[in-house]
Structure formats: C-alpha cells, structure tokens
C-alpha cells in the first residue's frame, strides 16, 4: 500500500469517526431533550404545558434562536396551558411557510395504576416507557430537535419553517392552543400547509412492518351525556323505577348499535391498498372483502367481516360511540337519585353532532333518559388534498428508508388539532413515520411505550422530509 493510499485511508477513517461522533452527540442531545419534555408533567389536572413550552424555548434560544423569533403564549385565565410558536426564517419571503404542529399536553396518568412512574422516562427491552412517549411528545421533541439541528448546520431553507407547540388537545373543554392561534394569532402560524400527528407505520402481531400511513382527513370528537334523575328513597324499599337500571338498559341499546359504513377518498384508497397487502399475506377472505366493500359500500357481509377483524378498520369505516365514564348514586343506603354516563363519539366527516345526538336518543328509546350534547370540541373539517407535492417526497423517503413498505392514506379514526387548522384554511397532514403494533403502544392507556429504534428512525426521517418540503417552490 502506498503512502498516498495510507494517508487517504487515514483521512477517510477520520471523517467517518467524526461523522459517527457527531451523530452520537446529536442522538444524545435528542435523548436529553426528549427526556426533559417527557418528565415535565403536562396533564391538565396537575401539570403545566406552559413550563414545558418554556423549557423548549430555552433549548431553542441556547441553540441560537433570536428572542424575537420565539413567541410564547398563554391565555390569562389558563396560565398553565400555554404554548410556543418558533420561527425559522426562510430565504424566499414570497413563499408561504411550512408549519410543524404538535401538542404537548398528555392524557391523565395515575402512578398507582402504572408499572413504572408515568412521568419518568424509562428505557427497557428496547422501548421507552412513560406517558406521552408517543402521543404527542415524540413528534414535539423531534420538531424542536430538528430546528436545533438545522440551526447548528446553518441550514437556510427556501421557505420559512414555523413550529407550534400547543396544549389542550387531549381534553374537551380545555383551552386549546391550536384553536386559539387560528382564531387570535392566525398571521403568526399562517402557512401553505402543516405537518402534524395522526398517522404512523403499522406493525403486525409478529412485529413485521406492514404499511406506512399518511393522514388525509379525520373524524370529529364529541361527548354526549345520558342522564336519568329520580326521587330516590330508602334502599330497604327497592322500586322498579331505578335510575341506575334505566341507565344500564339505555347503555345496552347504544352498545348494540353500529353506525352505517361510510367512505372518503382516503379510506377507499386505504382499503384498496390494504386488500393487496392482505392478499400477499395469504388472507384471501379479508382481501376479497376489502375489494368488495370498496366496489359496493352497501355490501353488508364484506363490511361486517372487515369490521370484525380489526378495531382500527372498524373505526375507519363509520361513526363510533362508546361509553367512557359513569357516575351514579349518592349514598350506599339510598336509591340513586341520579345516574349519568358519558358517551364519546368519533363522528365521520360530514355528519353533524345533532344527527348523532338524535340517533342516540332514538336508540335509548326512553323519555326518562335525557340525551344532551356536551361542549363541542371543534369544527368538522374537510380532508386536505393529497397533492404530489405532499405525497411524492413521503413515498420516496419511505421507499428508501423502509424498502418494500407501501404508503397508504388514512382517515384518522380519532381527532387531532389538525381539525382547527384544516377548518381555518391551512391544509394539515398527519405524518409521523413511527411504527407501532396492534396495541398502538398503549397510547391513552397504561404503560405507554415506543420502540427506541423506531423513534430514532422517525427523527431522521422527519429531519430529511422537512428539508425536502421547505426547499420546494
């Protein structure tokens, strides 16, 4: 080997070592940022989104963001439910910005119910465990980390990048930062389009990658109350007219009903693509049923087969309503004077809240069970168009980083803050290339978790994707 070759190899090894060291340092910084965000309790009852937003702002400022480009916000009557908007200026002022959206509030979590402390980040068995490790602090942390990385490499995007970290997504009736920004600070977040949570990669029960999703539309969340009132009396003198029994009978009738199947362009495309996947896996009956329901939305047998196979498929096909909370009685030795249940519905696009309330009232079929609409979370929003500008870069990166995994659009069965942006004229897409199995990482449940490798892959994917989007004309 010549001296020149030896020197060349040494230089190559040096650059490889430096690159690996930079990657290692970058990953360590991300882990630290992620841990801080996870361990800042942002549950509505006893946490503070404002504190979490302040900590993320401090990290951005330490990375070189000017104070003028950081815009913390909070309503005076909701001091702990604040958020943050950060601006990363682009070089072409004529192009509208790209908005990165993520909510930083989390679902309530009781320590006594969890195996681990829900507000301590624990790494075990290749997973991170804590409340919010997926929903939605994974993407929130990735967005902050992405902007810091761009700043460190002095990246100058063609279009401005905006980041909005908001509170209130998880609780109907709470101060919602995304809604507030649309209604009161629209100029601050105005954008050509936004990237948000709402879609992910699907793993099968064996852990194999099945499909990568992109959200194009979502349902509307709405709570209804079933309530029975009664004079009550002494428990030693039972009466047939019992508030709890009436409510229980009403709930059984609601449980036994399925809303009719409906379709959007996104859900048709999803089941068309999923039919091919199921056929390749040898599930011929499921594949045939999916092809049949796309061809004929009134094919009851096909719809029933698909609905029974997967709760996510069922939720994609129709409005769903389910009892989520009960409250009844006032004393152990008295007949109940009041019994109430909360019915949480996820309403298909284009269906009104009143239509669903009227249907619940019809199902209950008891004038002594009052059915009322609780506070409306937000507007029904139109699905954003899946243009080549949005879809093509996502498909290309998926093919490169996850070879052989198809991309399918979905109608999100849940609801995200994208509903406020879509309704306000900012097309918003659910893009979060993080793989989860059939249990969805126990999101909203006990012991929420995410694969460490999948989270880090998602971080790198979004870092590259946002560059592509921001450099488009």
What does this entry look like structurally?
- The chain is α/β, with parallel strands linked by helices and 473 residues long.
- The chain folds into two domains: 29-198 and 416-471, Aminopeptidase (3-Layer(aba) Sandwich); 220-373, Alpha-Beta Plaits (2-Layer Sandwich), CATH 3.30.70.
- Helix content is 40%, strand content 20%.
- It has 14 helices and 19 strands.
- It has helices spanning 3-38, 49-62, 137-152, 177-184, 186-189, 243-255, 265-280, 284-295, 300-309, 311-317, 353-364, 388-401, 418-423, 452-471; strands spanning 70-73, 83-88, 98-103, 122-124, 127-129, 161-166, 193-196, 201-203, 209-218, 220-229, 233-234, 320-328, 334-335, 338-347, 370-373, 407-412, 428-430, 435-436, 449-451.
- Strands 1-2-6-3-7-17 form a six-stranded mixed β-sheet. Strands 16-9-8-18 form a four-stranded mixed β-sheet.
- Strand 4 (122-124) and strand 5 form a beta hairpin.
- Helix 3 crosses helix 14, helix 8 packs across helix 9 (300-309) and helix 12 (388-401) packs antiparallel against helix 14 (452-471).
- It is globular.
- The chain starts with a helix and ends with a helix.
Provide the CATH topology of the largest domain.
Aminopeptidase
> Which oligomeric state applies?
single chain
Question: What share of residues are in beta strands?
Answer: 15-25%
Number of domains: 2
CATH class of the largest domain: Alpha Beta
Keywords:
Alpha-Beta Plaits; alpha/beta; 19 strands; 473 residues
């Amino acid at each position: 080997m010549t001296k020149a070759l030896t020197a060349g190899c040494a230089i190559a090894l040096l650059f490889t070592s430096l690159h690996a060291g930079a990657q290692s340092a970058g990953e360590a910084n991300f882990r630290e940022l992620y841990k801080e965000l996870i361990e800042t309790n942002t549950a509505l009852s006893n946490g503070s989104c404002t504190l979490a937003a302040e900590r993320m702002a401090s990290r951005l400022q330490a990375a070189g963001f000017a104070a003028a480009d950081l815009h913390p916000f909070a309503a005076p009557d909701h001091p702990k439910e604040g958020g943050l908007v950060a601006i990363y200026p682009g070089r072409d002022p004529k192009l509208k910005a790209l908005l990165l959206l993520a909510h930083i509030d989390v679902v309530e979590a009781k320590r006594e119910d969890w195996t681990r402390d829900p507000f301590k980040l624990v790494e075990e068995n290749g997973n991170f465990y804590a409340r919010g490790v997926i929903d939605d602090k994974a993407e929130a942390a990735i967005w902050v980390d992405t902007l810091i990385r761009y700043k460190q490499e002095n990246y100058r995007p063609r279009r401005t990048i905006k980041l909005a970290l908001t509170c209130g997504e998880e609780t109907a009736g709470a101060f919602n930062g995304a809604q507030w920004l649309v209604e009161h600070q629209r100029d601050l977040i105005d954008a050509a389009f936004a990237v948000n949570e709402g879609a992910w990669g699907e793993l099968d029960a064996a852990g194999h990658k099945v499909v990568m999703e992109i959200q194009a539309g979502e349902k509307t969340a709405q709570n209804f109350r079933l309530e029975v009132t009664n004079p009550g009396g002494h428990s030693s003198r039972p009466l047939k007219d019992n508030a709890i029994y009436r409510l229980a009978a009403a709930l059984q009738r609601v449980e036994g009903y399925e809303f009719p199947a409906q379709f959007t362009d996104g859900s048709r495309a999803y089941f068309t693509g999923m039919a091919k996947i199921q056929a390749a896996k040898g599930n011929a009956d499921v594949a045939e049923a999916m092809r049949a329901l796309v061809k004929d939305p009134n094919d009851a047998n096909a719809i029933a087969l698909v609905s029974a196979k997967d709760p996510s498929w069922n939720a994609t096909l129709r409005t769903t309503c389910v009892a989520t909370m009960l409250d009844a009685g006032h004393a152990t030795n008295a007949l109940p004077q009041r019994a109430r249940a909360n019915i949480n519905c996820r309403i298909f696009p284009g269906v009104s809240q009143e239509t669903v309330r009227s249907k619940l009232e019809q199902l209950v079929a008891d004038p002594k069970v009052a059915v009322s609409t609780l506070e409306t979370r937000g507007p029904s929003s139109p699905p954003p168009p899946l243009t080549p500008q949005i879809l093509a870069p996502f498909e290309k990166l998926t093919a490169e980083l996850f070879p052989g995994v198809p991309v399918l659009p979905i109608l999100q069965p849940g609801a995200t803050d994208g509903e406020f942006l879509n309704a306000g004229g900012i097309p918003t897409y659910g893009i979060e290339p993080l793989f989860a199995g059939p249990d969805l990482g126990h999101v909203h449940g006990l012991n929420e978790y995410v694969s460490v490798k999948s989270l880090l892959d998602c971080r790198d994917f979004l870092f590259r994707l946002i560059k592509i989007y921001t450099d488009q004309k």
